[in-house]
Amino acid sequence: MSYKFLLNQKIAFFVLFIVTIFSGGKVSAAVTVYPDDARISYSDYVRLTFVDSPFDASRKLARFDRMIPMAGTGYNADNPGARIRFRTDATSIQVQLYYNSLHISTTARNSIGFYLVDGVGNAAWTFKTVATTTVRAAEQVTVTVVPGAAGSFHDYEFIMPYGDSVDLQAVVVNDAAQFSTPTARSSIRYLAYGDSVTQGFTATDCTKGYAYLVAQQNNWQVVNLGMAGRAGTSKDGEDYIGQRNADIISVCIGVNDWQAGYPSTAARYQTVMTNFFNYLRAIQPNVPIYAITPLWVDPLWVMNSTEPLENYRQSLRNVVAARQVTDRNIYLVEGPSLIDNSVSYFDTTRVHPNNAGFAQMASRLAAIMAAKPAVVTGLTAKPGTVAGQVILNWSAAAGAGSYVIERSSTSGSGFAPIGQVTVPTLTFTDGGNRTASPLYYRIRSLNPGGSAAASAEASSLAYLPAGIDGWRYVNYGTTNSTDSLAADLAMPHGDGIPNLMAYALGLSATVANRPDSLPAAEQGLVAGVPYFTYTFTHSKGAIDVTVVVEAANDPAGPWTAINPFLSANQVGVSDNTPSTGIETIVVKDTQPLSAASRRFMRLRVTRQ
After folding, report:
1. Is residue 8 scored above 80 in pLDDT?
2. Fold observed for domain 519-607
3. In this structure, what DSSP letter does residue 241 have?
4. How far is CA 292 from CA 29, 208, 274, 413, in A?
5. Where are the domains of the chain?
6. How confident is the model at residue 28 (pLDDT cuts 50, 70, 90)?
7. Has this prediction a pTM greater than 0.85?
8. Is 186-370 the same fold as 27-184?
9. Where does residue 496 fall: left (phi above 0), alpha (psi -120 to 50 degrees), or beta otherwise?
10. What is the pLDDT of residues 479-494, one digit of tens each?
11. Where do the H-state alpha helices sit in 403-536?
């Protein structure tokens, strides 16, 4: 018996041990999610590719690059601000990164990246290489993430460093972890093109450069195409910038042109930038562009140029001014105004801003981009030349990039957008209006900073051909007199009233007419004498038809014509009855009822 007891004790102990391991949460299998798994998403990059992993031939690495070749430096392999994103309820998260060897510069490197949890960062949530030297070997780095509160899903975003090349190798989570779609990034893509200042040198990390900060302040994605050492290059506008489908672009380049010395001159720089914008506009004709003249540079900075930097600023001013004659969506920003002209806002090279300088630059540039355009003035509206058209014209609004046209059938309320045009267009044709009533319009100017208040209203009737063709367009959307529904003698509602008659009498063309709205003959007293009378409605706008009342003793005729518009033939006329523009006419027969044993009356409508 004791043996059985000991055996049972051992079994109980064994079971207890199992529960401790697998239910106590101390040991758990890991799940590895690879870069090409749909549970991981990416944003804020120039180009993303999946390349063979050097660690496992069956796996891929996610690699970013910025396409513009930079021989001898590999700055094109850096990806300032590019993001790796996923959403999970994991309680244990490790992100495996591979700092490859594509950044080959021997003079500049910054490998510091950041991660966010639910959009919030922490000064301790950084990652970087172990090596701190400018030249280093390839290195694998595993980041142990501080997870969000247990029991719920959280968004995780890894922001790539501005001065190093990093691949994603894998995301490793606990085995019970689930994934869902990350909260969407803004759809607005801000592309910043320039040199080392735009890339972010010499900010302390990737979240301190002006391009990143401008995007953060406006809740935009950032596509950073700042390349350290880059000078103005015409084909960049076509080959790289124009192809990126950006929503807003800033261009800050020129200092390297200036300090390079001969053969670089301000005149040559002006030609290069003229061609740059020509190439860019051929692909992206309407995207807002902010052209930034070279920043302030400490006069003690030693350079090779024989011309002052101000000459290069003036060259860019000339380029932008020439474009603005027809391109109202390009804006000049004076670079020296973005950062106070003091060495305290620049690093020891005297050319690159420090963190304080970048913050000031971002704040001021974002404010310029956020400045709303002027209110539209000079709006006019008039009938067009085609049925249903109204033509609008207005004056240019300062700072506008586009104009939204709004319309209402009521003055002062009910406005809704009906179209949008980009500058320099200052006209809009509103077509297809099937109404004979006034239409009301207003315009709002737009730019990346938002929308201005609406302009003053303008109103107009849509153009309608005279007579029945205008009526036909309002009711059937066509002026074609042979159309199966709109023809003069067509009766689309089967009420026995052809279109020509409905037009002349001001009856409905959209629904069957009620019997009590149709012409009617009845007996009545005229000056105390019994007469047969005929009552009908008449549209006062029906100017191209002849309306005649006819009377006869027999349906076979002969019929006697009665002009219903002669007062001698009228018993009464009620103006604007039953509605505006319609009159109700009562016509008497040519003879009293006593003159014949029976009498008939009818209405005839003919085209003139």
Report:
1. no
2. Immunoglobulin-like (2.60.40)
3. I
4. 54, 19, 14, 41
5. 27-184, 186-370, 380-460, 468-505, 519-607
6. low
7. no
8. no
9. left
10. 898 898 989 999 888 8
11. 468-476, 499-505
